[in-house]
Write a structure and sequence with these properties.
Blueprint: H1 2-33, H2 36-70, H3 81-85, H4 91-137, H5 148-152
Protein backbone atom coordinates (compact mmCIF):
# COMPACT_ATOMS: atom_id res chain seq x y z
CA UNK A 1 0.00 0.00 0.00
CA UNK A 2 1.39 3.40 -1.02
CA UNK A 3 0.48 5.11 2.27
CA UNK A 4 2.79 2.80 4.25
CA UNK A 5 5.66 3.54 1.87
CA UNK A 6 4.97 7.26 2.26
CA UNK A 7 5.01 6.95 6.03
CA UNK A 8 8.33 5.10 5.80
CA UNK A 9 9.75 7.85 3.57
CA UNK A 10 8.70 10.46 6.14
CA UNK A 11 10.35 8.46 8.92
CA UNK A 12 13.52 8.10 6.85
CA UNK A 13 13.49 11.85 6.26
CA UNK A 14 13.13 12.40 10.01
CA UNK A 15 16.10 10.12 10.68
CA UNK A 16 18.31 11.96 8.20
CA UNK A 17 17.23 15.33 9.56
CA UNK A 18 18.06 14.02 13.04
CA UNK A 19 21.53 13.17 11.75
CA UNK A 20 21.77 16.72 10.39
CA UNK A 21 20.75 18.00 13.81
CA UNK A 22 23.52 15.95 15.42
CA UNK A 23 25.99 17.41 12.93
CA UNK A 24 24.68 20.91 13.64
CA UNK A 25 25.37 20.40 17.34
CA UNK A 26 28.89 19.19 16.53
CA UNK A 27 29.35 22.21 14.25
CA UNK A 28 28.41 24.46 17.14
CA UNK A 29 31.21 22.97 19.24
CA UNK A 30 33.73 23.19 16.39
CA UNK A 31 32.80 26.82 15.75
CA UNK A 32 33.19 27.66 19.42
CA UNK A 33 36.55 25.87 19.60
CA UNK A 34 37.71 27.23 16.20
CA UNK A 35 38.42 23.76 14.78
CA UNK A 36 38.36 24.50 11.06
CA UNK A 37 39.52 21.06 9.87
CA UNK A 38 36.75 19.30 11.77
CA UNK A 39 34.25 21.86 10.47
CA UNK A 40 35.21 21.00 6.88
CA UNK A 41 34.64 17.31 7.57
CA UNK A 42 31.23 18.03 9.07
CA UNK A 43 30.23 20.11 6.06
CA UNK A 44 31.14 17.21 3.75
CA UNK A 45 29.01 14.81 5.82
CA UNK A 46 26.22 17.35 5.83
CA UNK A 47 26.23 17.69 2.05
CA UNK A 48 25.95 13.91 1.65
CA UNK A 49 22.92 13.88 3.92
CA UNK A 50 21.34 16.75 1.99
CA UNK A 51 21.67 14.69 -1.21
CA UNK A 52 19.89 11.81 0.52
CA UNK A 53 17.11 14.17 1.57
CA UNK A 54 16.70 15.32 -2.04
CA UNK A 55 16.34 11.69 -3.12
CA UNK A 56 13.79 11.02 -0.39
CA UNK A 57 11.87 14.14 -1.38
CA UNK A 58 11.55 12.76 -4.91
CA UNK A 59 10.41 9.46 -3.49
CA UNK A 60 7.87 11.27 -1.29
CA UNK A 61 6.40 13.03 -4.32
CA UNK A 62 6.29 9.70 -6.18
CA UNK A 63 4.53 7.91 -3.31
CA UNK A 64 1.97 10.70 -2.96
CA UNK A 65 1.31 10.50 -6.70
CA UNK A 66 0.99 6.75 -6.52
CA UNK A 67 -1.48 7.01 -3.64
CA UNK A 68 -3.53 9.63 -5.47
CA UNK A 69 -3.69 7.50 -8.62
CA UNK A 70 -4.76 4.52 -6.51
CA UNK A 71 -7.64 6.59 -5.11
CA UNK A 72 -8.67 7.81 -8.56
CA UNK A 73 -7.21 11.31 -8.31
CA UNK A 74 -4.89 13.04 -10.72
CA UNK A 75 -1.30 13.05 -9.34
CA UNK A 76 -0.08 16.50 -8.38
CA UNK A 77 3.46 17.19 -7.10
CA UNK A 78 2.16 20.19 -5.13
CA UNK A 79 0.04 18.00 -2.84
CA UNK A 80 1.41 18.07 0.69
CA UNK A 81 1.13 15.48 3.43
CA UNK A 82 -1.47 17.68 5.15
CA UNK A 83 -3.54 17.72 1.95
CA UNK A 84 -3.15 13.98 1.62
CA UNK A 85 -4.28 13.34 5.19
CA UNK A 86 -7.70 14.75 4.28
CA UNK A 87 -8.33 11.99 1.77
CA UNK A 88 -6.96 9.09 3.83
CA UNK A 89 -10.02 7.43 5.29
CA UNK A 90 -8.50 4.57 7.26
CA UNK A 91 -8.08 5.91 10.81
CA UNK A 92 -4.82 4.14 11.69
CA UNK A 93 -3.20 5.13 8.37
CA UNK A 94 -4.30 8.73 8.83
CA UNK A 95 -2.96 8.83 12.40
CA UNK A 96 0.35 7.19 11.40
CA UNK A 97 0.73 9.69 8.56
CA UNK A 98 0.03 12.66 10.83
CA UNK A 99 2.36 11.29 13.52
CA UNK A 100 5.19 10.86 11.00
CA UNK A 101 4.58 14.38 9.72
CA UNK A 102 4.60 15.80 13.27
CA UNK A 103 7.81 13.98 14.20
CA UNK A 104 9.49 15.34 11.07
CA UNK A 105 8.23 18.85 11.82
CA UNK A 106 9.66 18.73 15.36
CA UNK A 107 13.10 17.69 14.12
CA UNK A 108 12.98 20.33 11.37
CA UNK A 109 12.19 23.02 13.95
CA UNK A 110 15.11 21.93 16.13
CA UNK A 111 17.40 21.84 13.11
CA UNK A 112 16.33 25.32 12.06
CA UNK A 113 17.10 26.72 15.52
CA UNK A 114 20.49 24.96 15.63
CA UNK A 115 21.38 26.32 12.19
CA UNK A 116 20.43 29.85 13.25
CA UNK A 117 22.74 29.57 16.27
CA UNK A 118 25.55 28.26 14.04
CA UNK A 119 25.06 31.08 11.55
CA UNK A 120 25.30 33.62 14.36
CA UNK A 121 28.44 31.94 15.71
CA UNK A 122 30.02 31.99 12.23
CA UNK A 123 29.10 35.67 11.80
CA UNK A 124 30.60 36.52 15.17
CA UNK A 125 33.74 34.54 14.36
CA UNK A 126 34.18 36.38 11.06
CA UNK A 127 33.57 39.72 12.77
CA UNK A 128 36.22 38.87 15.36
CA UNK A 129 38.69 37.90 12.63
CA UNK A 130 37.98 41.15 10.81
CA UNK A 131 38.40 43.14 14.02
CA UNK A 132 41.69 41.39 14.81
CA UNK A 133 43.03 42.02 11.32
CA UNK A 134 42.08 45.68 11.54
CA UNK A 135 43.95 45.93 14.84
CA UNK A 136 47.05 44.33 13.36
CA UNK A 137 47.21 46.11 10.00
CA UNK A 138 45.19 49.20 10.80
CA UNK A 139 41.91 50.25 9.30
CA UNK A 140 42.02 51.96 5.93
CA UNK A 141 41.42 55.69 5.88
CA UNK A 142 37.98 56.28 4.40
CA UNK A 143 38.13 60.07 4.31
CA UNK A 144 36.64 61.84 1.34
CA UNK A 145 38.89 64.89 1.33
CA UNK A 146 42.63 64.84 1.62
CA UNK A 147 44.78 67.94 1.66
CA UNK A 148 46.86 68.21 -1.55
CA UNK A 149 50.16 68.40 0.38
CA UNK A 150 49.36 65.13 2.13
CA UNK A 151 48.78 63.39 -1.21
CA UNK A 152 52.25 64.27 -2.45
CA UNK A 153 53.88 62.85 0.65
CA UNK A 154 52.53 59.37 -0.02
CA UNK A 155 50.36 57.06 1.97
CA UNK A 156 51.46 55.99 5.42
CA UNK A 157 49.72 53.27 7.38
CA UNK A 158 50.06 52.89 11.09
CA UNK A 159 50.29 49.17 11.69
CA UNK A 160 52.41 46.44 13.21
CA UNK A 161 53.42 45.02 9.84
CA UNK A 162 55.48 46.72 7.17
CA UNK A 163 53.40 46.16 4.06
CA UNK A 164 56.17 47.34 1.71
CA UNK A 165 58.71 44.78 2.89
Amino acid sequence: MAIQELIQVLRDMKDIHQSLLDIAQLKKETLINNQVDQLNGLVIKESKLVKQIAELEQKRVFEIGRFLVGKGYKPDPAVTVSDLSRIVFKAEDKQALLDAQQELAVVLGQLQRANQVNQELARNSLAFIDYTLNLLIGAEDDSVYQHPQQQAGGYKRNSYFDTKA
